[in-house]
């Protein structure tokens, strides 16, 4: 995958007219999403990302570079002034709902009944409620109540 800037035409797009395909072209591998997950959870240094994910150094270097090139992470000097740290940009922070939705799907479908797993909680320690997409009038949306409208 060649590096590109979101919103700029790229001849390597899997499906240039589909927002899902473009998003997957940018962050659709497991390591990119796990780096974003850990950045959301407060990881800032190369070492932290490597320790949390178990990712090989060369792959982590590549993913951090791509996430920076795509405008999802940026680097800044750490408060200590001794090293650089990675922080989410607004675009990276916007992936929170994606990570949350994947987490909630995994809680329902990737564990056996009664199997223990981590839980995302709010600032008060309460489990985060399930995300349920709704229309403007409050109707719950799903595959049977939505469609893709192509714009040409």
UniProtKB/TrEMBL annotation:
Keywords: DNA-binding, Transcription, Transcription regulation. Residues 18-114 form the HTH hxlR-type domain. The keyword Methyltransferase does not apply. InterPro entries: ArsR-like_HTH, HTH_HxlR, WH-like_DNA-bd_sf, WH_DNA-bd_sf. The keyword DNA-binding applies. Residues 132-152 are annotated as: Disordered. Coiled coil: none annotated. Gene3D superfamilies: Winged helix-like DNA-binding domain superfamily/Winged helix DNA-binding domain (1.10.10.10). CDD domains: HTH_ARSR. The lineage of its organism: Bacteria, Bacillati, Actinomycetota, Actinomycetes, Micromonosporales. GO terms for molecular function: DNA binding. This is Putative HxlR-family transcriptional regulator. It comes from the Bacteria.
